Amino acid sequence: MVGISVTSVKVPLVIFALVAAGLLYFHGNRFVVTLDEGIPLETAQRMLNGQRLYADFFGYMSPGSYWLQELMFRLFGLTFLAGRILPIFWCALQASLVYRLTSQFATRMAASLATAFYVAIQLEDHSNITAKHRWDSAALALLSVSLAVDARLHGGWIRWTLVGVFGCAAALCTPPIGFVLLATLCWLLFEKQFRQAGLVVGGAAACGAPALLWLVAHGEFGAFVEQLRWLSNAHSRVNTMFYGSIMGGYDKILSNGEGIGKLVPLGLAMCLALPAVLPILGITGLIREAYGRKAKLGERQIFVYLALVIVAFIAATVPRLSVSMLLYTTALPLVATAIWVSRSWPRKTTSCVVVLFAAFLGAFVMNFWAETVKGLRVETVVGPVKVAPEDSAGLASLVKNIKPGESLYVYPYMPLLYFVTQAKNPARFNFLQPGMMSDTDESLVLTDLTKAPPQWLMYSVWSRSEFLRLLPGGAGSSEHFPRIESWVESHYDAVEPKVALGGYQLLRRRDFTSAVNASLPGHRASQ
Fold first, then answer.
1. Which pTM was predicted?
2. Can you give the residue ranges of every domain in the chain?
């Protein structure tokens, strides 16, 4: 079989280098007020300090992402930039794979446009490219798929083995993404490629077995199984969202503008909906190309495989089928759509569509750049960060008040604040998601807090409207943990002058406040 030439990987390598360098420069130390980013960071830091995942504290997902983030801290130090390296690396990798996969079946121009569109879609919001397990799993799964395509075209037992290695690694970061590896195996078995399927299984075992042995050896396996059981019961409780939905709904966007001015919000809504539209277009296009007259020898099987994998990617986001979740799986549907458009759409139609979306997606890039440039520098214990002007005073006051090593609890949900202050979380849980965590989970946290009351709290009580905006499936659930809120209100006071960040307010323990006041010279002189 023909191997892969140097020229076929040179352009993807250049794309990877450019995207990674650009994101590191503009986004590597960009602090974003977001709920999820701190989950892998705070978890990995606990592991770095010797605590056992699942056994000693709550671990939200399977261990892969936490292991990868701990490795980043060991290699690059406990810094904010080290916490941002992985999502930047994965985004750059997926951009390069978009080019490579597209260029194998379409023109280089189509591959270049698909790559540019992929990057632009990811830049729609600063919170997209932040540390999350979905980045790890989506990129590793796409790498597995790309290797499967290469192996189908060029052969090689090493490639087939690596398909299994990276497919299993993806599942270790997000268990449902294992559907992608399952899709690969089903395709190979249907094609009667039994030897190749055996190599894939062997690669998956070579990745999964050491992970399993590690969990057993460190006394974490039993707790991990319990965590998966908890997750299967709790996650769908409030996280259900309809396919293609966005937080707050499209009505708010489409209600802006009048007359011809309606075209701007309409175009914006269309671009925001792309992660949900592209899979439908991609599957349709791949099936049409697979059974069309232009299909070359061997392309039909690959196109059917890619369509099957897109379905697997979508299945991996259930029950939260929102645009924000589908965003992580945009790469392959974009590849499929680009292949179909390049090979079969009329040139004039293609040009109009490209120009239309390029205008709006270009606006995403310009907005990303503008927001980055106007960010203000704030010094933190994990290094300097750039933060939006409206959040800079709050972050600066927070890191000024809370010293590294002091105890802090963030209620209900923003674990990034533990990392950026390097404060110690006294509770087993690093976040409490209303509607997902149970009364038992609330009791465990309350026990931890009463046993070792933290000096500080970053505190927010979600309104009903905010709760339903973030979790539309939570209509039958409460947005409160009443026992914890009652305990907080009877033991903590707001800091003066007020310190607030992202809707959270800094509170200080009352007896801690008294002890601080008693140590002040003016207070002692008055006694």
1. 0.93
2. 6-370, 376-516
